[in-house]
Design a protein that fits this description.
With 405 residues, the protein is mainly alpha-helical. Helix content is 55%, strand content 1%. It has 17 helices and two strands. The protein has a two-stranded antiparallel ribbon. Strand 1 and strand 2 form a beta hairpin. Helix 9 runs antiparallel to helix 10. The chain starts with a helix and ends with a helix.
């Protein structure tokens, strides 16, 4: 055994043979010799690299875990910011989303301009006050302003206005004479005979028994409904007459009167012109055309129509009166007075002429004569002028009071 150990020592100490061997091959040879002698091989010496790497990796894992926990806490609003915000810039958290930053405005007193001019007016939506602000207002006076005296200025004396006198009654409107509905002799019915196709029941109302079939029946029904004030039925039957005979001048004239009573002057003028075109000597249609023209604001054309009638019949007091009214509307008061006096010279009991002459005299400042003719009108007027008579009485009283002053 000792000899073998000596051999090993000598073997290990040979210089020329071991100079070219590396440390690794020398260690391998020793392992083989020890193994052949029954000794266990020696463990290689540790260089210390593997433990250091493990420590670094472990530290990095701990840092990553800590960063994740920090970032989760930031998103859950447990901390102000997270590592990602530090790395990639500031980001809005859930608490800061959709929240506008407060706007700092300079605080100025009411009426005092701020650094860059007057303070901007608040929007209407934010200008409301709370109830507590209104109930308990806080007023802070300026430090340098002296305290105002508590005496209040005396209110100005009340102005007492004298009651205004009641306005005088307006001048009554002019009276225009209209030639009423025309009935051809062949179509005239007795007053006691009802319209064809109409019967009266026990309650006093009418009821149709048979439909009209001829132009004459339609004309009679149209007259009946026009006189009873049924505009729609009268219009239906006049149109039926004209469908059967377009050249029926009386139907055109009566239809014009129907329109005129409703204030439809354009339609009335159209029907009156058709009637005068069919029968140029139809004086009632000429008179009604003049009235419609005068009421629609065309007095000059009305003068032409009334002059034509007066030229045909110089004693027609209705046309003379209407001509005077058209002249008055045109501003020719002198001519209007002459024609009204001429009408009264023909018929001194014609109430409309007295009334219209009183209007002309009042406009000419002949108050006493105007009162006389107003009173003549009141004495001669009938039931159709009862409403106008009330206004005329008030007018007479007013004019008499003017004379007494």
């Amino acid at each position: 055994m000792s000899r073998m150990l000596d051999a090993l020592r000598q073997h290990s100490g040979e210089g020329p043979r071991t100079e070219g061997l590396s440390a690794k091959s020398s260690g391998v040879a020793k392992d083989h010799v020890l193994a052949s002698l029954g000794y266990a091989a020696q463990a290689p010496e540790s260089t210390g690299v593997a433990p250091a790497l493990q420590i670094v990796i472990g530290a990095m894992l701990v840092m990553v875990a800590a960063a994740l926990v920090w970032q989760v806490a930031a998103y859950n609003q447990l901390v102000a910011t997270g590592p990602l915000s530090l790395l990639f810039g500031p980001r809005q958290t859930a608490a800061h989303r959709n929240v506008a930053p407060p706007v700092q405005r300079p605080v100025t007193s009411p009426g005092v301009p701020g650094p860059s001019g007057p303070a901007p007016a608040k929007p209407a939506a934010t200008a409301s006050l709370r109830a507590s602000d209104i109930a308990n207002p806080v007023v802070v006076p300026p430090a340098s302003a002296p305290k105002a005296p508590s005496t209040a200025a005396a209110p100005p004396p009340a102005i007492v206005q004298a009651p205004k006198p009641a306005p005088p009654p307006s001048t009554p409107a002019m009276l225009v004479t209209t030639s009423r509905t025309s009935t051809p002799p062949s179509q005239a019915a007795s007053p006691a005979t009802p319209a064809p196709g109409v019967t009266w029941n026990a309650a006093g109302s009418s009821a149709a028994t048979s439909a009209p079939t001829s132009e004459t029946d339609h004309f009679k029904l149209a007259l009946y409904y026009q006189r009873t004030g049924d505009f729609e039925q009268a219009l239906i039957h006049y149109r039926a007459v004209l469908e059967a005979n377009e050249l029926n001048a009386e139907a055109h004239n009566n239809l014009g009167l129907l329109y005129q009573d409703k204030g439809l002057y354009d339609e009335a003028i159209r029907e009156f012109r058709r009637a005068t075109a069919i029968d140029a000597r139809y004086d009632k249609a000429h008179n009604n055309l003049g009235v419609a023209l005068l009421r629609s604001g065309n007095p000059e054309s009305a003068v032409s129509e009334f002059r034509w009638i007066v030229a045909q019949d110089g004693r027609n007091v209705e046309s003379l009166t209407n001509l005077a009214l058209a002249l008055r509307a045109s501003g020719r008061l002198s001519e209007a007075r002459d024609h009204l006096q001429r009408a009264l010279s023909i018929n001194n009991r014609y109430a409309n002429a007295h009334y219209n002459l009183a209007l002309v005299l009042e406009e000419s400042a002949e108050i006493s004569r105007a009162i006389d003719h107003y009173e003549q009108f009141l004495s001669l007027g009938g039931a159709d002028t009862a409403t106008l008579a009330t206004d005329v009485r008030g007018r007479v009283q007013l004019l008499r009071s003017r004379l007494l002053k």
